[in-house]
Amino acid sequence: MRITDMLDQVCIDPRAGPDTLDRMADECLEVGLAAFCVYPWWVKRVAKRMGDRVATSGIVSMPIGLEGTAAKVASTKDCVAAGAVEIDFLAAWSAILYGDLDAAIRDAAAVVEAAKSENPAVITKAIIESPEMERHSGKLAAACRVVVESGADFAKTSTGLSVYGGGTVEQVRAMRAALPGHVQVKAASPDILTLADAAAMVEAGSTRLGTPSPIRIALEEAGRLNDPGMEAGTGGYVREFGWTVPTT
Which fold does the domain 4-246 belong to in CATH? Predict the structure, then answer.
């Protein structure tokens, strides 16, 4: 399987408008990424542009995961109704840090149930903010338990917005060891910048990748970094202050 088939694009820049979203969607289609993850506001537009060629994922409860469960459920249902076939959602990781696992499980399970009730084929990815969990002894395993008991399809490392950075190879390896085989791992980190970085995450056990450079990695894998019309290294986008912004 190509690493390109495991790559998710993401736009979490609140300044991004229709033209930016369209351009990013077209880049996803050009290289054949796995999914494009966007805020609920943009799901309908992106899903219409993507069709069934690249999955549209709705990002729910970014960046903290502490909205009430009812708000998460409503947002999830809205995303699926608008055309999302995947949901990347924040687990209530603060609750996990302070030992309220039952509440975190109920919250995550409600999101999963909401997605599956709208469309049983929807893929759900629970973000546990693994860099935060690693700082608290035993919490990464506890967070993995929350994902398992919620029924989510993936445990996703992080948003990349933590002060401790994004998911690491070591965290992916630990998550893979803590999870049953049917729950997959998505490694997400601002440090996954090259094909070698992505390959290291796959070797550690990840089957999806969240990166600020999915276009660059896809072009590198295809030997197309110097293709005319494609920005070598970025696919037309750069990371700045934690957001994905268009270059000029």
Answer: TIM Barrel (3.20.20)
